[in-house]
Structures are given as structure tokens and as C-alpha cells.
Amino acid sequence: MSDPARPRLDPPDLPPETPAFWAHFWTRGVTPWDIGRAHPVLDDEADALAAGLASRDAFVPGAGRGHDALRLADAGWHVTAVDFSPEAASCVAQALEALGGVYRVADVFDVDVSGGFDLWWEHTFLSALPPTHHRAWADTAARAVRPGGCLAALLFPTDKPAADGGPPYRVDLPLIDDLLAGTFRRERDRSVPPGTGHRSFGQHYAVWRRD
Ligand SMILES: C[S@@+](CC[C@H](N)C(=O)[O-])C[C@H]1O[C@@H](n2cnc3c(N)ncnc32)[C@H](O)[C@@H]1O
């Protein structure tokens, strides 16, 4: 999923939408998607995303080790991070609480998110989900984000052939534009230089505004 030189593990023969699939990696300490720090786009965006918002409630689905959640909390966001892998939560829950956030061990699709957030921070959660779950992802985001709030996404991998499957599954602008049509409008986007975060596939950054 990232640097080919990092340790890899063959995926288990389990459905990728199940906790058991992800536990296979977490319990072995093999997390090749993890770039070891908050994504560099957050160096600017952690503050920029708050522009014009009356509150700073952020939702981070599939938060993993929580580097991004911590970066957002450090910038003053009230962060709710969710991951169904307890091993992921144990890495970061205390540090996030110390910054006023909360890390919940739960399935994102079971969390009552209704109207609770100004920001949905998307980073390799959608690409972890099989396409059968795309509609649920979009519906959950639409329920979670308040009107005027935004969904910011670090898209990865943007250029992996769809036929290669996943995870990570290919995600790109047209896919997310389609999924969010009628609830969010794309406000801005930019390319992310190749290799950022030691990743071999393409990345892109975009922000959609909730109508
Ligand atoms: C590819 S990892 C990305 C982790 C983190 N966002 C990052 O960039 O380092 C995907 C994470 O999503 C979690 N996950 C997948 N499906 C989930 C679901 N339905 N509910 C909660 N967590 C989920 C997995 O446990 C895993 O930690």
C-alpha cells in the first residue's frame, strides 16, 4: 500500500470489510499503509479547513494509528476518531484524549454521526472499503457533516488499475464526485507530488462543501 521496501503481508482470505481482515495486519504489527506521521497536506490544511466554520468538530473514520487525528486535534479541532481495530486505538487513544478528542473502537457504519461534525477527514478509509460499501460511505458522510461543513479527502491510490482490486481500492475525483452528488459540491483540489508519504501510487487532495 505504500513503500515497497516496507514489510508486507499477504492479505488473509477474509472479506476486507470485516474487523477480522484488519486484525490480521494489526495483530502482526504490519501496517504498510501507515506513513508514520500526519499526512503532509495537513501541514497547511489543519488550519485552512477551519476557515469560515463556527465550530471545529472533526470526524476521522478508519483512523488507524491516529497521526492525522492528533494533528487535527493539535490545531484545535475536537476530534472523534473511529476504527474497529482495538490495536489501532491502543496506539493513540490516550494522546488524543489529552488533546480533548476521543477514539472510539467501533464500526464507522454503526456510529450515530447525525449532524455532529464540521469536517469529515478522509484518508485511506474509502480505499479500504470494497465498492459494495461506497454508497454507505457517502450516505454516512452526508449524515455526519453539518450544512456548510466539509469533507476533505487525501485520495490514494488514484491510479491503481481498478481491475487490480484491493485493498487499497482505487479512489479518484470522478468516483467521489459521483458518490457525493446532491449533498456536497467540490470546492477545490490539487495534486500531491509523487512519492509524498513514500507512496508508490498516485495521490490527490480535494475538499467538498456540504450543501
Ligand atoms: C488502510 S487503514 C488506514 C488507517 C489510517 N487512516 C492511515 O491512513 O494510516 C484502514 C483502517 O480502517 C479500519 N477500518 C476499515 N473498515 C472499517 C469500518 N467499517 N469501521 C471502522 N474501521 C474500519 C481498519 O481497521 C484500518 O485501521
Give a summary of the structure in a few sentences.
This protein has helices at residues 19-26, 42-48, 67-74, 86-98, 134-144, 173-180, and strands at 57-61, 78-83, 102-105, 117-123, 145-155, 184-192, 203-210.
Strand content: 15-25%
Quaternary assembly: single chain
Largest β-sheet summary:
7 strands, mixed
Sheet with most strands: strand arrangement: 3-2-1-4-5-7-6
Mean pLDDT: 94
CATH architecture: 3-Layer(aba) Sandwich
N- to C-terminal distance: 33 Å
Molecular structure report:
- This protein has helices at about 20-25, 40-50, 65-75, 85-100, 135-145, 175-180; strands spanning about 55-60, 80-85, 100-105, 115-125, 145-155, 185-190, 205-210.
- With about 210 residues, the chain is an alpha/beta fold.
- It has a single domain (about 55-210), classed as Vaccinia Virus protein VP39 (Rossmann fold).
- Helix 5 links the parallel strand 4 and strand 5 (about 145-155).
- The N and C termini lie far apart (about 35 Å).
- The relative contact order is 0.16.
- The structure holds S-adenosylmethionine.
